[in-house]
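Report of the visiting student (M.T.), summer placement. My assignment was to run the structure pipeline on a short list of targets and document each run. The first record concerns Mce-associated membrane protein.
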Amino acid sequence: MLVAGGLVAVAAAITLQVHDHRQVDAAQTQARDRATQLLGDVLSYDFNTIDAHFADILPSLGGDLRGQFDSVGKEVIIPSAKQRQVVTSATVVESSVVSASEDAVTLLFFVNQSTTSTDSAAPKLDGSRVRVGMTEQEGTWVMTEMTPV
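After the run finished, the structure tokens were exported:
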């Protein structure tokens, strides 16, 4: 009897671990997909439509990042983009999961960005690395961290 009870306990523990692992795997996939799309959206804009573009992005951001993005966007990025007629397009080249749980995933992205402006007639190409934090809030993945590294 004691051995059978022990086997049931071990089987239950293994089942819970497999279930947790599957949930974390699903979280990684969902967060990476959403972050890839969001990062491209956040880093790509056209001076002609930048006000509406940034307003559309804001609900997809959470935590301190939302307030920071809103204020830096209004005070620095939008005025500068309009003045210099910036059009920029960002493409995620590669990504990697740094850490993950069921409701929070941290990723590292490699991004290529092409920018045109009144500063230069030819497109300027830049590559960068960005650490992105994603948090699940009410069933939706929102970006809560975006840090150049």
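The chain has a mean pLDDT of 90. Strands lie at 45-46, 87-100, 104-117, 120-137, 140-148. I thank the supervising group for their guidance throughout the placement.
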